[in-house]
Structure formats: structure tokens, C-alpha cells
């Protein structure tokens, strides 16, 4: 079975909310992304997002530390899953039996414009940051923020800090203005880890053609996501996901298309693609429509080449 790289999940959020959940339990009740499910589907690299729940009205750096503690204590505790911080780690994991994990932040709210916090997150292994969730913060506006502004002055210097440190930026959830501010301010090819094509499904979380073309032009990555509301407004199917892949491919994005499931971040799922143990159904559907080389690109090759090019060397 082909390898899979998935660019977004919220398993850490579920483990933060419910400390009883055991990632390594063979059943791992409550988790879409568990060790057993990843093994079943040959998920080789999984991005794990630090997403603070909305009930935390004053996000603090301590909250990030609590998540990072869960990650190290409960996921990368014994070598079965290993944190990927650089290209050396990427190669080591790829040639081993271990699963690789990439640590990401979704919502930079608790960084509060403090470069020491950004640097400390980098030290602890964070390699991707989505600057906002749906609403605005000190750095930028999210896609559901009524003001629909772009990046603040502090937010723009945060982009530079991330570029300099080697933290890659994620445009999923950004307002349209913030997306274009990021495009103008960042020297690196950024990504959208979990967003689909707005032309096929008009949800605000999806990307319009100009945004998709910009990500393609810069050789960033576009993570096709399994959130039913972003696939076709609710009655989603695996075929619906394929329509987004077809569409983005037709725009010229065959080398930029990647997966960003949003497993554990969604209350409804697509039939046959309800958790990380069910990628086989997606692989079967893709294989009917695309060549082996193309399917490999979508499932892992495009993510791998991006990581290989943009993670720090050591
Ligand atoms: Zn999200």
C-alpha cells in the first residue's frame, strides 16, 4: 500500500480536552488519527496541530506548552512516532519503520507578537504556523472576522521572523486580504494545509482561483481537505474530493496538491473516509482515475518534495 502524508489533524486537541485518550491503544476511542489507524493505512508522516479551543478566551503561551507536553509525553514517547524537525530527520524516518510527526500551530494568538515565543516554539520543534483560526488576532484577520483586514504591522514582522527561523506559514483560515499580505510579505512558498476550491464549493474557508494560482505559481502546497462542508456543502463523498483534485490539477496544480484531512477537527465525516484507517478507499478511487505516478504525488510525493526543500537542513 502506498504511503500517505497528511498535512493537518486535530488529534492533539482531542487529547488536550480528554486526557484519558490513549493514542497507542488499539481502539483509541475518540481518535480519528491513532497509531493503529495510521499503521493500517500506511500513514508515514502526520502533521499534528496545536489548536486551542474557543472556550479559552485568553490564549497563553502556557497552553501551547501543555499541548507540546502531550505531544512529547503521549505520542513521541518511545520511537514508534518521531518528531521531524529537519531534513536529516525526514530522511531517517522515511528509511525506518517509524511514523514521522510534524508539529504545527493553528492560531498564533498566544504568541502575542513576542519574537521570543516564536523562537521558543521553533526550538521545541514547531515547523508550520497557521497565523489565525477563523477570527482575528494580533497578527492578522481570519476568514470569518467581520473586519476582513489583512496583517497588522506586528503580524508582518512575525512573517519575517518565521521566514528567518525556517517556520513555514499556513494560509488556511486567513482572510482573503491576509492571504495576499502573506503572499506579498513572505519570501518563502507558503501552504494552505486544509482548504478546497471555492469555485466548486462556495464555503468561505475554501480558496478562490487567484489564491490557488498563487500557491501553484510559488510552488507552495494545497491540502485538499475532507471537511464535508468544504467538499460540497455537506452531502460529501469521496467522489466530491476527487472533483476538487481534478479542478486544482486542471489549474496546473498537479505538483502542488497534497492531503490535509482535518481528522479529529470535524464532527461529521465523509462516508468511507471517516478516520485515518480508511485511506484505502480514497487510494482506490484515485487509482481508477489517475496514473500511479500521479496518485503517489497526491498521497505523499508532493508533500515530501516540499518538506525536503523547505525544512531546515539540520
Ligand atoms: Zn483548521
UniProtKB/TrEMBL annotation:
<dbReference type="InterPro" id="IPR008257">
    <property type="entry name" value="Pept_M19"/>
</dbReference>
<dbReference type="Pfam" id="PF01244">
    <property type="entry name" value="Peptidase_M19"/>
</dbReference>
<protein>
    <recommendedName>
        <fullName>Membrane dipeptidase</fullName>
    </recommendedName>
</protein>
